[in-house]
Amino acid sequence: GGERRTLRTNPEEAAAIVAEVRARFAAEASPSIGVVTFNLPQRDLVETRLRDLDDPRITASLDADDGLFVKNLENVQGDERDTILFSVAFAHDESGRVPLNFGPLNLPGGERRLNVAVTRARREVVVFASFEPDELEVERSQSRGLRDLKEYLRLARLGPDEYARRSPRLPEPDDHREQIAARLRGAGAVVSTDVGLSDFRIDLVLSPGHDPGAPSLAVLLDGKGWAARGTVYDRDVLPRSVLSGLMGWPGVERVWLPDWVADPQGVVDRLMGRLEEAWARAEGGRRSVSPPGGPAG
């Protein structure tokens, strides 16, 4: 196309998102999709491109209250969809650098906007970016939002396992965690402790005894790592959304210390029930045919 890329719009990214939307509409009758962009010009570009397809199903979905939405970072609040397509939009400038002006993300509290955007997904977040995460020179900025964005892009680019390998941290002894793990093992679960990413470590990973190779439930505790997180978003919303959205965990549960102290057996029973539900969900997903991920046509 002859569209000029500006610092605020990214036609290539818009085209890739439109292709992804078309593929998903080709694969299922009424996919649950939202598109979130970093700024208004990119939002307008993506919506225009989608409407220009003249695809009656896509247009009808755009016009429906609970259908396909395209929103910028400031305007996405309560809307949730199974899949969020996330358009970073900003790209290299003439000098080949990635500019550090990411609009609302740079402002104080900008990291909350990022958290809101990535927590709109019930199942998965697909990130569209036209630069490598390490090209974002966040050390030149004071913005917490930019630092969080870089880590989120690294996580999306590398995948959880590789990200964890490159972000080593020694496991910390935690009596509370070990106590819960021991009780769950006694109830028949296969349990690993302190698994995964630097900032998104999972306290307990549970597999059912009858299928020990199928980690199905991630359990988060309110231990030291939880207390060290600054905001309620960081402590409660972001880890759950990253685990279920970006990493595709079948189940994510929390255990609060007061609940454990009051009724440890009740907590064990709840987690064992959730483990079986999550395992069954994942089994069903493995048996079904997943839709094609690439562009249609």
UniProtKB/TrEMBL annotation:
Keyword field: ATP-binding, Helicase, Hydrolase, Nucleotide-binding
Keyword Zinc on entry: no
Matches recorded under InterPro entries: DNA2/NAM7-like_C, P-loop_NTPase, Restrct_endonuc-II-like_dom, SF1_C_Upf1
UniProt cross-references to Pfam families, sorted A to Z: AAA_12, MTES_1575
Domain DNA2/NAM7 helicase-like C-terminal: 6-129
Source taxon at top rank: Bacteria
A molecular function GO annotation: helicase activity
Restriction endonuclease type II-like domain segment(s): 178-274
Protein name: DNA helicase
Organism name: Schaalia georgiae
